[in-house]
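Quick note —
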Amino acid sequence: MKRGASDEVDRRLIALLLENARQSTMALAKQLGLARTTVQCRLAQLERRRVIIGYSALLGYDPGRGFVQSVAFLSIVKRSQKNIVERLKQYPEIKLCLTVDGDFDLMLIIEAAQNEDIEALTEEIAEIPDVVRSKSIMVLSAKFDRRTVMHNCDGGLTH
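Predicted structure written out below.
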């Protein structure tokens, strides 16, 4: 079964949905210059192929949740990656851990209540055995984020 957008029309349709998933099929059809039924068929195909797995409201800001973000880069002793990653999983402030290419081995996305919390965490991470070097960068603002986490009908998470 083919995955992903099959052509330019699918890509444009997906881009429109990423901007606003609440648009009606008629509004999407008008923007694409297609018949409403054509757009409905394409949406059904994208859903069947699991390119689109759901539609969700994403909250951009929760005033009760205030947080700051940082991106941290780590150079590590390669043979220790598994142990270091297991240790990093213990920090709830680390929201994402990726292996990367280049001058560093791991990239972390960190969220905390205040800058001082991130400073303390990055200092603690730098002390983990076999972390050779670290660098952190504070996030000033988010311009867009295409990652989504949706709740399915059973209350579970779908990525």
